[in-house]
Design brief:
binds magnesium ion, about 10% strand, 5 strands, globular, five-stranded parallel sheet, alpha/beta, Rossmann fold
Amino acid sequence: MPGGLRSRGRGRAGVALPTKSSAVTPNPAGSLPVTGCNDRVRRRMRGTMTSGVPAVFLDRDGVLIEDTGYPHLEEHLRFTPGACEAVRRLNQLGYLCVVVTNQSGVARGLFGEEQMRAFNALLVRRMAAKQAVIGAVYACPFHAEALDERYRHPDHPDRKPNPGMILRAIAEHRIDPARSFLIGDQPSDLEAARRAGIPGFRFEGGNLDDFVKDLLGH
Ligand SMILES: [Mg+2]
C-alpha cells in the first residue's frame, strides 16, 4: 500500500504518498517515513520521484468552508471543522493543495466573477494566516442555464463532473496525477476525479483533518 492512503469503505486507493517536498511548503523532514509498504510499492515510489508534485484537489463549498448556499461575502466564509489543520497537514506531507470549485452563482447572476475571485482570495489569505497554504484556486462560473449568456454553456469542460479544472491544474503546476487525489462532498466531485484519472474521496461532514488523517493513515 503506497504510504498508507486509505479509502473509506471501498478498499485501497493505490495512490502513493509524496516522496519529496512540494514547491509550496517544504517538508521539514526532507522525506516521508514510508511505513507499511512492500518492496514493490517502494520501487514504484522511487520511480515517481521526478515526475511532478503530488496534489490534493479540494472542493470548496461543503469541504473547506460551510456550504451556506452560494457563499460569496466575507460573512459567508466559515471554515469547516479541521479545514485549516487538514490543509496544513497536507502541506507538511508535501502535497500541493488545489481548490477546484463550481461557482454557478456567477452564471445565475447572484454575484460577479470579480466578487468570486475576491472571495477565493480571502479564503486563501485566511488559510495562510493559519499556516495552511492553498497553492492554486480554479473556479468555474459557467452553467447551462446562465442568465448572463457569457457564462452560458451546455456542458462546460471545467464544470464538474467534467475534469477540466483538474486537468488544467495538472498541466499548469507540474502535478503528478499518480500521486494525487481529490476530496469532495458531491457525486459530481468524485466523477470529475474519475474522469481526470485520479481517486476521489467523499467528505460527508465532520472534521476534515480527521478525515484526511484517516485517509492517509497518519
Ligand atoms: Mg461542494
